[in-house]
Amino acid sequence: MNGDPKKLSENSECNTYFSRLFHPASIAHVGASAQSAIGRFNFTQYFLDMKYNGRIYPVNPKYQEVLGLPCYACLADIPDPIDVAILAVPAHICLEILKEVPAGKVQFVIIHTSGFGEIDHHELDTEIIRLSKEKQFRVVGPNCMGVYSQPGRIGFWQGHWEIVDQPGTVGFISQSGGHGVNLVLAGMNTGIFFNKVLSLGNQLDVSINEVLAYLGDDETIEVIGIYVEEIGDGRHFQELLRRINPKKRVIVWKGGVTRVGKEAAATHTGSMAGNERIFEAAMRQAGVIRAAHLHEMACNRLIA
To answer: What is the pLDDT of residues 49-82, one digit of tens each?
Structure first.
C-alpha cells in the first residue's frame, strides 16, 4: 500500500484499507507489561478496559502471560495476521522487531516511541521506510499517541473507557499527541464526544492528507478538527478541504505560528512550519474555520 499519498487518498480500496486502522480485528502491543511505570502506556490494559472485542496480543520476551493473555516474544511468533501493531519500545528495538516480521503479516504499525527524525536520527527513518515497503505495512508516527476509535473500542489513554460507550460524530487529526489527549479530555468536560482521533506524530508514512480523505468519506463523522504543524502536499490538502468543507464542518488549528511555536513544532516532529500568511489565505479560500488554540477548538468551534 505504500505509494503516492494523493493517489491513495482518492482510492476507494484505500478507504477500505484504512478502516482496518480504526476497526482492527487484531492488535499487538509490543512492550506490554502488567507492571506500571512512569511514562509507560499500558495499551493492553486500555483495550481490556474499553472491552475491545478483537484479538489482543501482548508482545514481550520477558513474560509468558500479561493481564491474563498469552504473551509472545516477538511479532513473528503470533500465529495470526495482525491489523495493528503498537510499538512502545526504544527506537533501536523498533527496528529489531520489524526486521523479524514476515512480509504481509502486519497491516499498520503505530510507532509510539520518539527518538527518530525529530532529533535528527534520520537514518532510523530511512530504515523504517525501507522495512515498511519490504514487509508491506503502513507506519503511523513515529513519536505519536496512536488511534482512538469509539466504534472500534480502542484508545491511547487510560480514561478512554469512560467515553467509549458514548457515540460521537467528531473526528480529530493531530500531529501532536499531547493535543490529541488534551482535546479529548476537554471534550469529556464540555460534552463533545469523539468518533475517531489519530495522532500522527512525524508523519513518516501515513499523512494528514490520507486520513483527512478517509474521514471526509466517513459517514459517521460530521465535524473534523485538525492540528497541523507541517503538510507535505499543501495543494492537495487545500483541495481536500474544499471538497469536504461543503459536506462537513472543518476546523484547522495550526501550530508553529509564533517564534516559540515554531521552535516547539520543530522539536516535536522535526518539521518547520510554513509561511503563516500563505497558509491563512489557503484556508480562507478553502472556506474552513480557523482555531488559534486548544480552548477555542474545544469550546468555540467543534460545538458551534
So the answer is: 999 999 999 999 999 999 999 999 999 999 999 9
- All cell numbers assigned to 283: 484556508
Output the pLDDT for position 138.
Answer: 97
| Concatenated DSSP letters of the chain | --S-HHHHHT-HHHHHHHHHHHS-SEEEEET--SS--TT---HHHHHHHTT--SEEEEE-TT-SEETTEE-BSSGGG-SS-EEEEEE-S-HHHHHHHHHTSPTTSEEEEEE----SGGGT-HHHHHHHHHHHHHHT-EEE-SS--EEEETTTTB-SSTTGGGTTTS---EEEEES-HHHHHHHHHHHHHHT--EEEEEE-TT-SSS-HHHHHHHHHH-TT--EEEEEES--S-HHHHHHHHHHHTTTSEEEEEES--SHHHHHHHHHHHS-----HHHHHHHHHHHTPEEESSHHIIIIIITT-
- Look at residue 6 in the predicted model and tell me its pLDDT: 43
How far is it, in rounded angstroms, from Cα 16 to Cα 149? Answer: 16
Residue ranges of domains in the chain, CATH in brackets: 5-140 (3.40.50.720), 146-301 (3.40.50.261)
Q: How far is CA 201 from the centre of its chain?
A: 7
CA dist., res. 270 & res. 254, Å (int): 15
- For 116-135, write each residue's pLDDT tens digit: 767 777 888 999 999 999 99
Contacts of 210 (CB under 8 A, 6+ apart): 5, 8, 9, 14, 18
